[in-house]
Design brief:
Layout (H helix, E strand, L loop, with lengths): L5 E5 L6 H9 L5 E3 L2 E3 L13 E3 L2 H9 L3 E7 L2 E6 L3 H6 L3 E5 L2 H10 L4 E6 L3 H11 L4 H9 L1 H5 L7 E4 L3 H16 L6 H9 L8
Parallel strand pairs: 1-7, 1-8, 2-7, 3-4, 8-9
Antiparallel strand pairs: 3-6, 5-6
The chain binds adenosine-5'-diphosphate (ADP) and guanosine-5'-monophosphate.
The site of guanosine-5'-monophosphate (5GP) has 16 residues, from strand 5, strand 6 and helix 4.
Length: about 210
Amino acid sequence: MEKGLLIVISGPSGTGKGTICKKVIENSTDLEVSVSATTRKPRIGEIDGVNYYFINEEDFKERINNNDFLEHAFVYGNYYGTPKSNIMNKLNAGISVILEIDIQGALKVRKSHDDGVFIFILPPSLQELQKRIVSRGTDSEKVISNRLKCTKEELEFAVEYDYVVLNDDLLEATDKVRKIIDVEKMKSHRNIDLVEQIKEEQTCTKYR
Ligand code: ADP
Ligand code: 5GP
C-alpha cells in the first residue's frame, strides 16, 4: 500500500484555510486534518479535541520537553503545536494528513518531511481578507489588527510553498486543493511499489 501524503496548508489569518480544509475532507475516508494543540482560548463554538486540544502554557511546555510535537511555534501571541502521535501511523496506513499550520511550522516540517506537499492559500485582496476576518466574528479588534499587521510579511513566504491557491470562490479553491492532492498521489516516486506489484504478477504461461 502506498503511504498517505503529508499536506501542509498555510496562509494569512482569515484567508479561508480552515473552511477549505473542512470542505476538502468532506466525504473522504483517506484524508484527515490533524488536530493541533494550542494555548489560545477557545472561540465560541470551538470544541476541545475537535478544533484544537486547548491546553495551558505549562502543559504545552511539558509536551515540548517530552518531544510530543512534530513542530510547534509561537503564533500571534499563543503557542500552537502538531501532536506527533498518530500522524506516522496514519501515513503508513495510507491515510493522508493535512496540517493547517503557520509559516514557521511549515518551514520546520519541510526540513523533516521534504516529501510533503506545501500549499499556500492566498486571499483575493487585502480588503477582502479584512472583511473575512471581521465578518467571522470570532476575534476582538485588537486580535484582528495584530493578525492583519502580519499579512504582508506572511505573503513574502508564499514562494517557499509548492503551490499557491487563490481563495476567491470557495468551491473553486477547494477543488484546486483536491486536484493538487490527486496529482501529487500520481507522482512516479510515490508509485514505485505499485509498479513493482504489477511487474511481479504472474501472467498466463502461453505469453511468458
Ligand atoms: P482561516 O482558517 O484562514 O483563518 P477561515 O476558514 O476561518 O480562515 O475563514 C475566515 C472567514 O472567511 C470565515 O467566516 C469563512 O466563512 C470566510 N470565507 C472563507 N473562504 C471564503 C470565500 N472563498 N469567500 C467568502 N468568504 C470566505
Ligand atoms: P487560529 O488561532 O486562527 O486558529 O490559528 C492561528 C494560526 O496558527 C494560523 O496561522 C494557523 O494555521 C496556525 N496554527 C494552527 N495550528 C498550528 C500548529 O499546530 N502549528 C503551527 N505552527 N501553527 C498552527
